[in-house]
Amino acid sequence: MRDYILKWLALGLAMATSFIAPASAGHGGEAIAYKHPDFRGPAISITGPVANLAYERFNDTISSIELSGTWEICVDPNFRGKCRIINGSVSRLADIRMNDNITSLRPVSRRGGRYGDDRYDDRYDDRYGRRDDALVLFKDPNFRGQALGLDGAAPNLAYQRFNDTISSIAVNRGTWLVCEDPEYRGRCEVITASVGSVKYIGLNDRITSIRPYRRGDRYDSDDRRDRDDRHRRH
Hints:
The protein is α+β, with helices and mostly antiparallel strands and 234 residues long.
């Protein structure tokens, strides 16, 4: 009788552990990727970094994604190439130009947790905006260090004590114009996705003004005029 009771106690403990384990595994967030828009079709559940979805036979085939937590999605293996940071489900990845284009993805911790080289620093100052703002500027590469959140134009980042100090940018929503001089002058670049190191666009520690960008707005004509002036000087 004693052996019978011990056997059932052991079985009960094993069952309890089996229910606890999935919750612990999903603590860092979960992504469910679908092959069709609107969360339809074959799907895969992901709870940690995946450096190459080809091994899961799911690369370049995702059209919608359900999320808990914040994730980085990238077009190339090992979290390289064009990447975006998203913090909510996307029913049509075509809307952010990532349809059938994702090869690697990973969670991005907001409270100091680390995946690869991405760590959001606990020293982030919420007085300057939340990390779910449309745009988040970081003083260090790979979305680290002191941060500033924006939801609109900033004609001179000196007022926020953030000019000439930006090394990475997380784009959560929209398309943005970043410029090296105040009032959107000097050299400018248009960015549509997160940039882990702005040195690759030649603007590390050189950005002074930022604003939302729409094709055909004033920057287009200013940029053409600047190029024409440079051609005339040469």
